[in-house]
């Protein structure tokens, strides 16, 4: 089975990442009961052979399945089906998505306001440089790394070390969530636009606009995450490409 031969049902094919296609195939098989709860998935080598994808692509898809609560990985034993439907509240690293978002709303929204009032020219230069690099970046891993740096830089601009410490604490979870949303939700370009609105508000020194821009950004994060978790699977519905999603 070559997933790269899949087509969108209907009018115009939509190119998606190979990882998304693999995830969709495996998720559909689990939800249809082809792999029952408690079953062990085929080995990575076997799945790569069947689906004709590289091992890094497969491993990203397996990590996404685990994030969604569908599977569990047991060291030295393999990957086992944990549930036939995704959990409503996936986990990113040590934190549930709902807990992560709740904290981000209570911290990052007011932080953006403080940053607008307290940012230095150096802070603005750093954020503008990061944003420029992110807008030109096509590699998901590199973009995700800069995404976490962006949120750290906003916290730094608030001139309160406690804020930066809080973002540092959840940095790994933020990176995992960011990668998940970008691979499955095509969020990169939209997120770049949201980041630009935040930076423009900071440049203008408008606490109101900065908090509004950050709140909008977090709203979109929540909306995309909910859509991914609740989406109904259509097996073989899209055309993947290992180059990544098109936003």
From TrEMBL:
SMART domains: FCD, HTH_GNTR
Taxonomy, superkingdom: Bacteria
Keyword DNA-binding applies: yes
Record InterPro entries: GntR_C (IPR011711), TF_FadR/GntR_C (IPR008920), Tscrpt_reg_HTH_GntR (IPR000524), WH-like_DNA-bd_sf (IPR036388), WH_DNA-bd_sf (IPR036390)
HTH gntR-type domain mapped to chain residues: 16-84
Keywords, ordered alphabetically: DNA-binding, Transcription, Transcription regulation
Name of the molecule in the record: FadR family transcriptional regulator
Biological classification of the source: Bacteria, Bacillati, Actinomycetota, Actinomycetes, Kitasatosporales
């Amino acid at each position: 089975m070559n997933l790269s031969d899949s087509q969108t049902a209907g009018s115009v094919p939509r190119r998606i990442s190979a990882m998304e296609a693999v995830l969709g195939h495996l998720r559909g098989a689990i939800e249809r009961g082809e792999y029952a709860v408690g079953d062990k998935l085929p080995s990575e080598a076997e799945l790569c052979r069947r689906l004709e994808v590289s091992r890094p692509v497969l491993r990203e898809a397996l990590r996404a399945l685990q994030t969604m609560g569908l599977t569990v990985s047991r060291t030295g034993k393999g990957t086992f089906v944990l549930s036939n439907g995704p959990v409503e509240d996936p986990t990113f690293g040590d934190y549930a998505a709902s807990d992560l978002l709740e904290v981000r709303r209570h911290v990052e929204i007011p932080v953006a306001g403080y940053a607008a009032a307290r940012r230095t020219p150096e802070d603005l230069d750093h954020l503008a440089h990061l944003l420029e690099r992110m807008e030109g970046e096509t590699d998901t891993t590199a973009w995700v790394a800069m995404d976490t740096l962006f949120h750290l830089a906003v916290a730094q601009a608030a001139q309160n070390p406690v804020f930066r410490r809080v973002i540092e604490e959840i940095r790994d979870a933020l990176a995992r969530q960011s990668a998940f949303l970008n691979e499955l939700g095509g969020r990169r370009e939209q997120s770049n636009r949201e980041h630009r609105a935040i930076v423009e508000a900071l440049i203008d020194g408008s606490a109101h606009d900065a908090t509004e821009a950050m709140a909008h950004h977090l709203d979109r994060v929540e909306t995309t995450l909910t859509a991914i978790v609740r989406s109904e699977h259509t097996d073989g519905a899209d055309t993947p490409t290992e180059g990544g999603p098109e936003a």
